[in-house]
Amino acid sequence: MLLSNLETVPGHHIRQQLDVVYGSTVRSKHVGRDLLAGLKNIVGGELTAYTELLEESRQEAMNRMIEKARAMGANAVVGIRFSTSNIAQGASELFVYGTAVIVEPMQRIPDPFSA
After folding, report:
1. Residue 96: which of 45, 22, 34 has the closest Cα?
2. Model pTM greater than 0.85?
3. In the chain, helix, strand, coil percent, each to 5?
4. How many alpha carbons lie under 13 Å from residue 16 in its C-beta half-sphere?
């Protein structure tokens, strides 16, 4: 599956636009991670537990979007965007969406000046 945050896939022609596809996941903070993050806030630095949680959330939402695109017969998703929102105290949704399309490689025109 080709993925692009552009409206096209470089080097490819969009043969057919199918539909909007999306994926989402809702995650809550872990109490243990919260305690460690609170301590880290005092001394400064990256909150690696939250970085990992966000990365897992992104990947899960992307996988769900890709599966919906595959089910439609798409071989690419263009115009990919991410959004987040708070659902409840300590729980957030990560939402990803784009347009499922069928693409084909562009034909290369030979350069008449190359030897």
Report:
1. 22
2. no
3. 35, 40, 25
4. 8
